[in-house]
Design a protein that fits this description.
It is a single chain. The protein is an alpha+beta fold. Helix content is 50%, strand content 15%. Strands 1-3-2 form a three-stranded antiparallel β-sheet. Strand 2 and strand 3 (73-80) form a beta hairpin. Helix 1 crosses helix 2 (27-37).
Length: 127
């Protein structure tokens, strides 16, 4: 579970956790799902993905959940732990609250702006 001293999730970690919300996936499927969920903003190379996965495994947010051999290569599957699910939910709440602050301020600023009315009697002089 997220402690107060833990820094916010970095975007790749956030999307790796989000990719696993629907269930276990193997590495390549995680890469594809992350790219879909982030609208192409987050593109993980295999080395970057496994660095993120190793960190999340170490933090207890993911676990390895099976392995199979496909075309002579090992394919390892990963899934969220309860702590990983809770961390992702807390981070989504934090991001939503931060976005709400900005959206509320933007709507306040927009509503406080004077509405365009009839053209002013003042002429604009050429510079």
């Amino acid at each position: 579970m997220r402690s107060r001293s833990r820094p916010p999730l970095r975007e790749p970690s956030y999307f790796v956790l989000a990719a696993l919300l629907d269930g276990r996936l193997h590495g390549y499927a995680v890469i594809k799902r992350v790219q879909e969920l982030s609208d192409g903003r987050v593109k993980l190379a295999a080395g970057s993905l496994y660095s993120v996965i190793d960190r999340l495994l170490g933090e207890g947010l993911l676990i390895a959940d099976g392995e199979e051999i496909v075309n002579g290569r090992a394919r390892r599957y990963y899934r969220l732990t309860d702590d990983g699910h809770a961390m992702l939910a807390a981070e989504a709440d934090r991001l939503a609250a931060a976005a709400r602050v900005v959206h509320d301020r933007l709507s306040h600023i927009t509503s406080a702006r004077p509405t365009p009315g009839p053209r002013s009697a003042w002429r604009t002089l050429p510079a």
